[in-house]
Design brief:
The chain has about 400 residues and is of the alpha/beta class. It has 14 helices and 18 strands. The strands form four sheets. A seven-stranded parallel β-sheet has the order 5-4-3-6-7-8-17, sandwiched between helices. Strands 12-13-14-9-15-16-18 form a seven-stranded mixed β-sheet. Helix 2 packs across helix 13, helix 8 packs across helix 13 and helix 13 packs across helix 14. The radius of gyration is 22 Å and the shape is globular. The N terminus and C terminus are likely disordered.
């Protein structure tokens, strides 16, 4: 290897620096790799996003989180150039740490987001680091645009909610907008597989929100419901089949009405397998409404262990979106779009939008400065491209406009 080639080879490993008194970042030598840090990169979804991006030859991944051992282990399992790093999202000097790392992008996967503030996003603004998160908490995502003035001043993009909801759901809406220009109702269902690895953060977010009230648009009126309300059956394509679901709060319940002025009804449901576990969730929700300690953190730990060892269920899961409205001729019409994750590949689905958004930013195809929810920032094809190596299938079919889900069997 001659001197010039040796310099180029070593440049991939050397950091950038800021010269004293000069605000412009320079490099000791040329660095052709984009440095991407995944906060929570060894978790349920962060690890999957890391594997999706590991195939990019010009990206250096940094797997980060509170546990240095898990971060280094996660990085060691990735192909290509990757490293593990201990980084606490609650660190008081988080912005300084990010600045020292000279990042091209940070992907925030360290949930749950239901009770988080925007400290990671603020640290990215202070350090000039573009930001993506996979939040699905309603207030976190729907209020995220409040950070836009600061992000615009810093000259960086910040995107929240690059996950199944609202990134994938809004991409489906955009795909169907030509066939259904006016939407009157939308119903979203997510039925995860039972025999999959579950992150404690995901389980805790679900348990700790049980019984929490939230507004939901129904028949043109905003009505109060709660997480765990309206236990009902939903039929999803084979091999997922019939699932029991109940109401939960998600950003789409607010973002869909914002985007569709004529919308009359919006509802989201999710549930677990087997049915007995789902019935237990509905019971916990009602106990929580009575101010009983049904949703303490210890119950989330217990639920995590029970779900992991409870017999039955399958390793198939799915998501469906039903839209009803009028077509271009003014006639009533409806469509149902489904995506199924088979053989345990369901968790790849919520990871895909963040990977697609990261590629778009890193390649310079997303240049909007400011902070926004991931609402129709990605096309359906861009998201599905991330899922092509996995056992994921999709289908879209017309449905009669009067078709609804199975009757509610428990309401409150």
């Amino acid at each position: 290897m001659d001197g010039g080639n040796a310099e180029n080879a070593w440049s991939n490993f050397l950091p950038r620096r800021t010269l004293p008194g000069i605000g412009v970042k320079t490099r000791m030598v040329k660095n052709y790799r984009k440095r991407v840090l995944i906060l929570g990169g060894y978790g349920t979804f962060g690890a999957r996003i890391a594997r999706m991006l590991a195939c990019e030859p010009d990206v250096q991944l940094i797997v980060a989180g509170r546990d240095k051992f898990k971060a280094e282990l996660g990085a060691s399992r990735l192909p290509g150039l990757a490293e593990g790093l201990r980084l606490d999202r609650d660190a008081v000097n988080l912005a300084a740490q990010l600045r020292a790392l000279h990042l091209d992008l940070l992907i925030h996967c360290a949930g749950p987001f239901q009770h988080q503030d925007y400290r990671v996003a603020h640290a990215c603004i202070e350090s000039g680091t573009p930001y993506i998160d996979i939040a699905d908490a309603r207030r976190f995502v729907c209020d995220f645009n409040r950070l836009s003035p600061a992000a615009e001043a810093a000259g960086i993009p910040l995107v929240s909610g690059a996950s199944s909801l609202p990134a994938l759901s809004s991409a489906v809406l955009a795909e169907l907008s030509g066939q259904l220009p006016r939407v009157h109702s939308v119903e979203l269902d997510i039925a995860p597989a039972h025999r999959i690895d579950r992150g404690l953060a995901t389980v805790r977010a679900g348990f700790e929100s049980l019984g929490d009230g939230f507004p939901m648009l129904q028949d043109g009126q905003w009505r109060e419901t709660f997480a765990g309300d309206q236990l009902r059956r939903a039929q999803i394509a084979h091999p997922v089949g019939e699932r029991w679901l109940c109401n939960f709060d998600v950003p789409d319940l607010e973002l869909f009405p914002r985007a569709l002025p004529g919308l009359q009804t919006a509802r989201f449901g999710t549930g677990v397998q087997p049915r007995l576990l789902q019935l237990g969730l509905a019971l916990c929700a009602r106990l929580a409404r009575l101010q009983l300690p049904a949703t303490r953190p210890w119950l989330a730990d217990l639920g995590h262990k029970l779900a992991a060892h409870w017999p039955g269920g399958s390793d198939h899961g799915g998501m469906q979106i039903r839209l009803e409205g009028t077509d271009a001729h003014g006639d009533l019409a409806g469509f149902r779009w489904q995506i199924l994750g088979l053989n345990g590949d369901g968790p790849q689905i919520p990871a895909a939008p963040a990977a697609a958004m990261a590629r778009k930013m890193l390649k310079g195809n997303y240049t909007k400065i400011g902070a926004s929810a991931c609402w129709q920032l990605l096309t359906l094809d861009e998201i599905l491209a991330e899922l092509s190596p996995h056992a994921i299938v999709t289908a879209m079919e017309p449905v009669a406009s009067e078709q609804h889900s199975a009757p509610v069997v428990a309401a409150g």
